[in-house]
């Protein structure tokens, strides 16, 4: 476990800013407790400083996880957000998509969202924008990229793709191996 | 000179009068200025040398004793040749590295690459009656050089091994390519590499311990305040371009 370098922090925040915009400040500032980012085996964790300090007592190869997993750095140096961080993203998300109950299941199996399945969508959503997907009872199901802007959606046919699935909570079951040591 | 000691040889001067507590910074600076004045004045009193450059003067021998900055280097153990030379009373003569080559009409190194005696690019060799029929004198030259290099390398290795105090394993190959420090370390590893981890080794060996290089946590974790600052900096950087 180690701190993130300035370069790594920048990459992480750039990615998160695509979801929550200027609210990335809230992740660091707006809380009674101080939070920090830690890197362990290529994965970035978001943890309270108390937890992070306690975790220093555990040897590197023994430490499975701490706090909550934000995502991981790929070999190419890019940063991928994991589904584990969806609760924080949902709380601060700028652009949201709500699904109809009948298309919920399809999304949770890893499929993209068609127009027929969209109940509601944040206005002025641009194209290729990171969006967080909810069901009707405001439970975050995952996130993805908007394939069309909210204006284009109105003209789209019911089988057109609206949101491209990047991660959904169904992957907790589908890719169980992937989440070992990921804060579960 | 009024409480100022000037050593022109080492171009230094010192105000030897005691310093009182109530002296201000200005007064101290005044002292410095005064002693430097003495130094410069002293320089100009030296006899001028008659040369093309006008203000050339020869400094006298310095008399102030200055302590050594670094510790005196440890004596290295003598190499095999140095030991032999000491017994025989052979002294090192200083020889030129280059010599005049008559045939090529230029200066050439006495030893090594492109040296005068380098036979490698000789076209004609004098006849040697001791040669057997079919044996090439050119190959013999090459062979001789190869052997000399090999034996020299062996000697170098031996000297290096005596530099590191410990007995080395016999399979320490190409010791000349490794530093004596790393050799010493491998010698230590070997000395405790047995079933009891060196516990029952006799004598000096048993006391040897490898200095462990444990990674400290302090290096990988920076203080919270610094980290928070760094995080805010990164957030602001991202928001600037947003």
Automatic annotation (TrEMBL), chain A:
What the protein does comes down to: Required for proper 27S pre-rRNA processing and 60S ribosome subunit assembly.
* Molecular function terms from GO: RNA binding
- Any one GO cellular component localisation term in the record: nucleolus
Name where it's found. Nucleus, Nucleolus
The entry's keywords: Nucleus, Ribosome biogenesis, RNA-binding
Quaternary organization: Interacts with pre-ribosome complex.
Q: What is this protein called?
A: 60S ribosome subunit biogenesis protein NIP7 homolog
Q: Does this entry carry the keyword Metal-binding?
A: no
Record's Pfam families?
Answer: pre-PUA_NIP7, UPF0113
Stored InterPro entries: NIP7_N (IPR040598), Nip7_N_euk (IPR055359), PUA (IPR002478), PUA-like_sf (IPR015947), PUA_sf (IPR036974), Ribosomal_synth_fac_NIP7 (IPR016686), UPF0113_PUA (IPR005155)
| Assigned protein family | Belongs to the NIP7 family.
According to the entry, every stretch annotated as the PUA domain falls at 95-170
Any single GO BP term: ribosome assembly
- What Gene3D superfamilies does the record point to? 3.10.450.220, PUA domain
Task: Give the main location.
Answer: nucleus
Question: Could you tell me the superkingdom of the organism this chain comes from?
Answer: Eukaryota
UniProtKB/TrEMBL annotation, chain B:
Q: Which Pfam families match?
A: RRS1
Q: Where in the cell is it found?
A: Nucleus
Which residues lie in Basic and acidic residues bias regions? 50-60, 173-187
Any one GO CC term of the record: nucleus
Ranges for region Disordered: 49-71, 112-138, 151-228
Q: Does the keyword Membrane apply?
A: no
* Major localization class: nucleus
One GO term of the biological process aspect: ribosome biogenesis
Keywords from the named record: Nucleus, Ribosome biogenesis
Tell me the domain of life: Eukaryota
Record-stated family: Belongs to the RRS1 family.
Q: Give the function comment from the record.
A: Involved in ribosomal large subunit assembly.
Q: What is this protein called?
A: Ribosome biogenesis regulatory protein
Organism per entry: Galdieria sulphuraria (Red alga)
């Amino acid at each position: 476990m180690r701190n993130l370098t300035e370069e790594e922090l920048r990459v992480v925040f750039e990615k998160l800013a695509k979801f929550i915009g200027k609210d990335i400040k809230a992740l660091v500032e707006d809380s009674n407790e101080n939070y920090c980012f830690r890197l362990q085996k290529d994965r970035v964790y978001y943890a309270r400083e108390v937890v992070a300090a306690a975790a220093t007592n555990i040897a590197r190869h023994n430490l499975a996880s701490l706090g909550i997993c934000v995502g991981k750095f790929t070999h190419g140096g890019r940063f991928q957000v994991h589904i584990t961080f969806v609760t924080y993203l949902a709380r601060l998300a700028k652009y949201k998509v709500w699904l109809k109950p009948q298309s919920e299941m399809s999304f949770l199996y890893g499929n993209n969202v068609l127009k027929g399945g969209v109940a509601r969508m944040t206005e002025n959503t641009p194209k290729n924008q990171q969006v967080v997907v909810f069901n009707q009872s405001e439970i975050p199901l995952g996130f993805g990229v908007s394939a069309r802007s909210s204006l284009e959606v109105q003209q789209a046919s019911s089988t057109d793709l609206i949101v491209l699935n990047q991660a959904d909570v169904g992957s907790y079951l589908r890719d169980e191996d992937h989440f070992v040591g990921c804060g579960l | 000179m009024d409480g100022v000691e000037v050593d022109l040889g080492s171009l230094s001067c010192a105000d030897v009068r005691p310093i009182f507590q109530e002296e201000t910074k200005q007064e101290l600076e005044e002292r410095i200025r005064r002693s430097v004045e003495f130094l410069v004045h002293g320089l100009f009193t030296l006899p001028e040398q008659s040369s093309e450059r006008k203000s050339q003067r020869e400094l006298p021998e310095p008399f102030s004793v200055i302590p050594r900055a670094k510790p005196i280097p440890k004596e290295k153990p003598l190499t095999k040749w140095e030991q032999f030379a000491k017994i025989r009373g052979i002294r090192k003569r200083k020889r030129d590295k280059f010599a005049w080559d008559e045939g090529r009409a230029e200066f050439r190194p006495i030893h090594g690459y492109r040296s005068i005696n380098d036979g490698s690019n000789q076209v004609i060799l004098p006849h040697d009656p001791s040669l057997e029929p079919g044996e090439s004198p050119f190959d013999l030259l090459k062979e001789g050089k190869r052997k000399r290099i090999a034996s020299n390398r062996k000697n170098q290795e031996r000297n290096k091994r005596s530099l590191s105090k410990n007995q080395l394993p016999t399979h320490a190959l190409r010791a000349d390519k490794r530093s004596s420090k790393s050799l010493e370390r491998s010698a230590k590893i070997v000395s405790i590499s047995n079933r009891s981890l060196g516990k029952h080794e006799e004598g000096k060996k048993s006391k040897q311990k490898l200095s462990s290089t444990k990674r400290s946590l302090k290096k990988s974790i920076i203080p919270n305040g610094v980290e928070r600052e760094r995080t805010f900096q990164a957030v602001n950087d991202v928001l600037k371009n947003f």
